[in-house]
Amino acid sequence: MRYFSLKKSFILLFLSAALSAILSATFLGGCSSYYSSSGLTDAEEDYLTEIDLLDNNEDVLFFSSGLGIKQEGNFFTDKRVATYWIEPERPHREKRVSADYSEIADISIAYSSNSLYAHKITVTRIDGSQFPVYIGFRRAIAQDFFEALIKQWQQEQWQQEKQ
Predict the structure, then answer these.
(1) H helices then E strands: how many in the chain?
(2) 103 neighbors 112 (Cβ within 8 angstroms)
(3) Are 133 and 120 in contact (CB under 8 A)?
(4) What is the band of 20 on the pLDDT scale with cuts at 50, 70, 90?
(5) 4, 30, 76, 85: least CB-packed within 10 angstroms?
(6) Side-chain-side CA neighbours of residue 96 (13 Å)
(7) Among residues 31, 22, 100, which one has the least CA distance to residue 69?
(8) Which residue, 96, 141, 95, is CA-closest to 118?
(9) Reduced to 3 states, what is the DSSP secondary structure of residue 3?
(10) Within the chain, what is the greatest distance between any pair of CA atoms?
(11) Are 130 and 123 in contact (CB under 8 A)?
């Protein structure tokens, strides 16, 4: 009887540790991938072009994906900011949204106070419509993404005013 109890305790401990590792990797950003423009392969850039979120003459400046480039991603280029969610088995849930910098009125961020949730950047277009861009679970990465995006947007606004 004692042997069974120890064996049962060991199995429960093992399952608990395994579940904890899986949840940590999934929800705390352990499986997240973050790339700069030099980190995207030609095939990954081709995929973004294939789903109509990247033109051939655009450079990806920052890319973030927690589930892999084929399923979801958030990025900005020298031309636009974009977000997408691809779910082939449920196409009605798919989302592909982008806005050129010239269309954007405001960009704001709401940092999550819970480490299980991504940080939310809200892009507001000049016409008043909005879309969210969710960035990772690590605040430092979300802050880097947000600050670089703001800098790029302001630079593009300055260039347009100059013309």
Answers:
(1) 3, 8
(2) no
(3) yes
(4) very low
(5) 4
(6) 15
(7) 31
(8) 141
(9) helix
(10) 83
(11) yes
